[in-house]
Each structure stands twice: as structure tokens, then as C-alpha cells.
Amino acid sequence: MTSSARRLLLWLTLLCSLAPAAAARAQGTIAGTVSDFDRGAPIPDVRVVVSGPATTRTVSSDAQGRYVVRGVPAGTYTLAVHRIGYSAQRAVDIVVRDGESTPVDLLLSAVPVPLSAVVVTPGTFGVMYENLAAPQSLTREDIETRPQLGEDVYRSVTRLPGISSNEYSAKFRVRGGGNNEMLVLLDGLELYEPFHLKYLDGALSIIDVQEIGGVDVTTGGFSAEYGDRLTGVFDVRTLDAPAGGRTRTELGLSVTNARLLNRGDFAGGRGRWLVSARRGYLDVVLKLIGEDDDLNPRYYDALAKVEYQLGDAHTVSAHLLRAGDRLRFVEDPGSHLTSGYGNTYGWVTWRATFERLTAQHVLSAGALSWDRDAVDLFNDRVPRATVRDDRSFHFVGLREDASFELGARSLLKWGFDAKLLDARYDYGHTLVRERANGGQGAPTRTDTTLAALDPSGSELGAYAAARVRPLPPLVIEAGARYDRQSYTGDAAASPRLNASYAVGRGPNPLTLRAAWGRYSQSQGIHEIQVQDGETAFQRADLAEHRALGAERGFWGTRVRVEAYQRRMPRLRERWVNLDGGVELLPEVEEDRVRIAPGEGDARGVELFVQREPGRGAFQWSGSYAIARAEDRVGGTTVPRELDQRHTLYLDVAYRPRAKWLLSAAWLSHTGWPTTKSEFAFEQVSATGYRLTRTYGPLYGERLPAYRRLDVRATRQFALGRGGRVAVFLDVFNALGRDNPQSFNYFVRGSPPGAPVVRREIEPLLPRLPSLGASWEF
Q: Are residues 473 and 613 in the same domain?
């Protein structure tokens, strides 16, 4: 056992041995009803949050407006409730005593839904919000207690319809798009390639789940303020300071990482801070799944935020985000790779909120750097390939977003995003393609790729939109944006239209949504694939989105169904590896090919069903999607790399007691496309032969279907002075299924006869248990 694993088990033993001693702490219950102030009628589906020094719990009222929060440690709490269409309400200084039920009844007044709060975009999901007014598809408790690999919000949101990924990478694809086609924002700043371990396909994101205060995930048809991306938006907001002037600290330890979070306020609550840091030990996970010690990945990230309210209308905040990682791979008789990747972002935000005008300005700067140094050897210790890769990317930018309420029925939005950028490429690789005499002689063909580039330029995006309510149930937003990149010569105008219509009255009307728009995505200044011989920028990708959606809540359940189409009349060329899997040196592998699609198309129908949070001991959600994502290549229609025709996701959680939560998740989808390999002996001399490999039709076959069950158990313990400990056991792929990643080929036989080929599945990750604990005080 390694020293890191021993330290991990020691920490878990200490935490688990201390916690039961405090488990007997006194507990009580908070219960009551939520009613309409004017009519006296009960209000269902009201989100009720109880927060205090020892716990934070969220439930929802039932059809009779009743709610119950059990297992609340004795103490003083604040209860906050909100329901869209009603005024917010808060009750403070609620005293909970041992063995007693504390009644708290609340009255809410109906108010018009603010025009700016109406969701007009189909495919929008709220995740992890502390704000009670936000629509929740996945709550913070869902993210923290449902089965997941690596405790990563990127991996957690793959349970939403329209999102797919492989097991190795945290990167996900939206409705069949590329994994770089999602716009990622953190507190208003765009993040570029926000993933650790770039050369392990981005195994984890650089945004730690513990620092997140809310996420808006939009999978298509997004409005005009978001630009230069083709498929969707991942908009992340960090946590605020805890209520009541408290300072809270959270320590976490698991198989994959150790983390620290501290937040609080100062200057009488006018100032707030948040500091978060994480150190990863992915090498422990690799040992658990049977990998040898040759692969050694390490990573870290840290975020600091300070916010100060200058007056009633103005708030200034400063952010600093730093992430880095190193990967080392050494294999006898001498192959090696070392790589590094670093992200640094700094930004200052000024927000002004007046009676009718809201504006936000973000001044930012950032830098990315990555490097590789690798040697790949033949068995005779002669290099097959050498790679030297050193790149960097810098930017400074200014962004403004503003909105102005003309009245109760109309709203204007506008803004711009301007950046200066530069990049540096210093790349070279040498690859021996053929060697005489069965690989023992001098090279007969060697390929060399060299690139030294220093592009620089500017980006400008500007938008304007108007949102109107011509009828009480109807909201329409029409807008357009303009994007220009000087270094590529791209310039695109993008009109967009979104609408929402509520059928019927009451707390759960049927809501219909529609979206149409044109979208473009330029090639990033740091995205030239110099490793494949590219030295110039390509033209921007273009897409047209069409989407229709319907949402309805009833009987404590919310149901959403959406249909979409994304037409792509112009797509850039890309390089892929046909065999699948994760390669440390993908550009030198023999399965590397160039795909030049003339156009593409993605369409599908998605269903999402969810029981409202806090409704009883059981919680569940499920999604199903039937979809296809295709390219037109050389006059032939072929599926995209992770095309999933049918996808089913089921998620269930059961709380047998207040401190226990048991959860399970089931994922099933159609097998991914694959390209068949064919082998033959080719005569190269009077007595010499070589084995050749060719490929069949591009993505002409499919792997077997994918099915996976994950389970998780979480136990919470209340400690003295408002502290708490949570311990979890998570088992990824609990059934140990050999889900297919690709096919392996085994060839035998002697020339001049035909080779005998056996094909076997190369499995993805095996059963993977994980232990972890967090301590909040």
C-alpha cells in the first residue's frame, strides 16, 4: 500500500471514529403549511430551506401545502421559502428542541413574475442553486450525494438529457456536438479548456464542486448575449457568504483529492470572501483499477473571491483562479512522456443595480500554457517517435452586459465583449513510418512535422435584444449579435428568437417554449492543430438551431419534453483517432485520420421527468432521448463520434433516516460508432512481407450497447459548535460490466496466406469503489 493510501485510510478512520460519538446529539422537527395570503388556499411545490449552524436542508410542500423537515439538530435556524409567482418569505430565530416538532406556518402573496425571470429558452436546466427562486433540475444535495466519479459537476450533469460523454473525460458533448463547442462561464468570465490533465482527455474540470453556488446549463437555442459557440452554455456562479454573518470552513478528503473551502463576510456584511483549494491524487485511482505505477498524474486548483458592496447600488468583486497539473509516464525500455498544463485567470467585476437599469462590467486577463516532451521506442530501443510541444495563450478583455426595464411588459438587453489575444506554438515531432527487415534495419520512411507560430489579434462580440410581454401568458425575446475575429477574418451576424407561453393559470401551468437562431464558432487562436501539420486558421463553423419544448408540473412531479434540430451548413475539418480510447500521443498513431465534413445535422426528442425535491423519503428522476448526430463526408452520411441513438438515465435516492441517504443511478445507451479494421500480408520483396492495416467505411459499425449501475451511500454526523461530517462510499460500475470503449484486434498467421484476425472488446473502466469524507465547521 502506498503512503498516500495509508494516509487516506487513517483520515477516514479518525473521522468515522469521532463522528458516532456526536451522533446522539438532540434532534427535532420543523413542520407547517404554506398558503396563499389572499385566498387562503394551500400552495404546492414551494421550496423550503432550513439553514443554521449545524445543517442545511431543502424540502418542498405537497399538494396540500404541507412540509416536514425531520432530523434537525437542536438549535436556532432560519427558514426561507420561495415559489415563482409569489413573494419571498423568511422566518428567523426558529428554535428546535430535542424530540419536539416546531410549527412554522407561512403566508405568501401572489406577485407577477418579473419579465427578466421568465425562462424563454428550451433546454435550460438549473443546477445547485442556493437561490430559492431558481428553477432546479439538480439540487446541491443531488450533486453531492448522487453517484459520480471524481466529485465533478461536469460528470454529474451528464444525467441531463442531450448530454453525453465517455467515462475517461469530464468533457461532455451537447446533442452530438464537439466537446469544445460549449461556452463555459465562471462568474461572468469565459474559461478556455477548463480541464485538468489535457493529455488524458481532460479527466477532471478545474472548477471544484464545493465552490459552486449555481449552474445554468443550456443545451440549445440560447439567446443573443451568448456568442461564438455552436451548441450550448455552461454558466457557473460561485457560492456567496453564508447567511447570518457566519464564517464557514469545509475540509474534504477522498480517494481522488483533498480540498479546502472557507467563506465569510467582513465590514458588517458589506464585504464577502471565498477561498477554495484542491489537490488531486488521481494516481491512487489508477492503482485501484489495476494500472501500473508508470503513469503518475497530479493536479491542483485554487480560487479566491473578494466582494464589496460600495453602496445600495454598486458592488465590486475581484477573482483569481489558478489551476495546474503534471503528468509523467515512464515505461521500459525507455519510452517516456512528461507534460504540464496551467490556467491562470484574474478578473474584476463591477455590478450596478438601479430601479430599472442593471449593468455589469468585467475586466479580465488570463494565460494558458501546456507542454509535452515524449519519446516512444521500438523494441530495439530505436525511437519510433519523438515529440516536443510547447504552447501558450494570453488574453485581456472587457465585457459589458446591461438591461433596462421600459415597463412591466418590455425589457431591453445589450452588451459587448472585446479581447486582445496572442498565442505561441513551438512544436515538432519525428515519426518512423516504416523500417526495413522486419523493423530491425534503417528507416525507409520518416515523417517530420515542425511548427513555430506566433498569431495575435482581436475578438469583438456585440449584441442587443428586446423582451416583451404582449399578452400576460406570452413572452417573446428577439435579438441579434455580431462576432468578428481579426486573426481568422471571420465576421458573422446571428439573429435569434425565443418565446414562452403559459397555458392556464395556477402554480403549475403548461409552459410552451420555442427557439430559433443562427450561431457561429470561430477557431480559437490557440486551436491550430499543428501536431497534424496544420499551420493556418479555418473558417468559422455555422449552425441553425430550432427547438420546441413543453413543461408541466403535477402531483409533485415535473415533466419536460423537447424536440430540436441543429443544422450545420459549414463545419471545420478535424483530426480523430479511429480506434477510440485515450492516447498520450494521438498524432503519431496509425489510426489518425482527417475528417472533412461538408455539412452536418443533429436532431432528436428528449424527455425529462423529476419528482420535486423534498417530497418524501424517495426522490427520483429519469431522462430518455432518441437522437442522431451526423456529418456529410465525401457525399456519404456518417454518424458522429459519440452518436447515441437511444439514451436512458434513471436516478433514485432513498432517505431511510434523516442522516442517511442511499442513491443509485442507471445509464444505458446505444453503442458508439466504430470503424472496422482489416488486415493483409503485402509482399515487399521476393521473400519479404509486411502486415498492412486498412479501415472500412468511416464509423460504419457500432459497439455493443452500454449499461452501467452506480451506487452511493452518504452518512451525516452532527458535531458540536455547529459542525458536521459527511462520509460516503461510492461504487462506480457496481455490476462490473465490461462496457466497450473500442475493439482490439489480434492477428496471427504466416504469409503468403491470409492472416487470421480475432476481435475483442477493449473495456472502459471496471468496478471502482471510492471513499471520502467532508467536515464543515
A: yes
For position 23, which CATH number holds?
2.60.40.1120
Domains identified in the chain, total number: 2
pTM of the model: 0.83
Query: Do 335 and 355 share a domain, yes or no?
Result: yes
Pairs from 56-65 (Cβ < 8 Å, separation ≥ 24): 58/139, 58/140, 58/141, 58/613, 58/614, 59/613, 59/614, 59/615, 60/556, 60/612, 60/613, 60/614, 60/615, 61/33, 61/34, 62/556, 62/615, 63/555, 63/556, 64/33, 65/33, 65/34, 65/35, 65/41
Look up cell 441531463; give the residue. Answer: 160
> Do 105 and 173 share a structural domain?
no
638 and 728 co-located in one domain: yes
| Ordered DSSP codes for 697-753 | STT-EEPPPEEEEEEEEEEEEE-GGG-EEEEEEEEETTT----EEEEEEEEE--TTS
At 73-85, the pLDDT tens digits run 777 888 887 676 6
Condensed to tens digits (0 to 9), the pLDDT of residues 124-167 reads 766 544 433 344 456 666 777 778 777 788 888 888 888 888 88
Indicate whether 293 and 190 sit together in one domain: yes
Domain of 35 in residue numbering reads as: 3-111
* Integer CA distances (angstroms), 491 to 428, 485, 519, 528, 599, in order: 32, 7, 12, 19, 19
- Cell numbers describing residue 169: 473525460
Residues 242-269: tens digit of each pLDDT: 766 678 888 888 777 888 999 988 888 8
d(C-alpha 740, C-alpha 46), whole Å: 43
Q: Determine the distance from the C-alpha atom of residue 486 to the mean position of all C-alpha atoms in its chain, rounded to a whole number.
A: 30
Phi, psi of 199 (to 5 degrees): -90, 10
Distance CA(760)–CA(747), nearest Å, equals 11
Q: 192 in helix, strand or coil?
A: coil
What is the CB-side half-sphere exposure of residue 458 using CA atoms within 13 A?
6
Q: Which amino acid is at 532?
A: D
Average pLDDT for 761-770: 87
Runs of H (alpha helix) within 401-457:
436-439
Residue 452 near residue 411 (C-beta atoms within 8 A): no
Q: How many residues does the chain have?
A: 777
Q: Is 678 helix (H, G, I), strand (E, B) or coil?
A: strand
The verdict on 158 and 18 lying in the same domain is no
State how far the Cα of 515 lies from the Cα of 74, in Å rounded to an integer.
Answer: 49
CA–CA separation, 511 vs 560, rounded Å? 9
In a shared domain, residues 130 and 102: no
250: domain CATH number is 2.40.170.20
Same domain membership, residue 122 and residue 79? no
Distance CA(47)–CA(91), nearest Å, equals 14
- Reference 563, options 503, 511, 499, 607; nearest CA is 607
As to burial, measured by CB atoms within 10 angstroms (0-12 exposed, 13-18 middle, 19+ buried), residue 144 is: buried
How many H helices and E strands in the chain?
5, 49
Stated as kind and residue range, the H or E segment containing 620 is strand 618-633
Task: Please identify, among 96, 111, 126, the residue that sits at the C-terminal boundary of a domain.
Answer: 111
Cell of residue 180, nine digits: 469544445
Q: Is the peptide bond before 752 cis (omega within 30 degrees of 0)?
A: yes
C-alpha cell, 344:
491562470
Instruction: Give the Cα separation of 469 and 465 in Å (integer).
Output: 14
CA–CA dist 749, 681 (Å, integer): 9
- Choosing from 91, 111, 131, the residue where a domain stops is 111
Q: How far apart are CA 536 and CA 534, in angstroms?
A: 6
Lowest model confidence (mean pLDDT) among 39-43, 262-266, 453-457, 479-483? 39-43
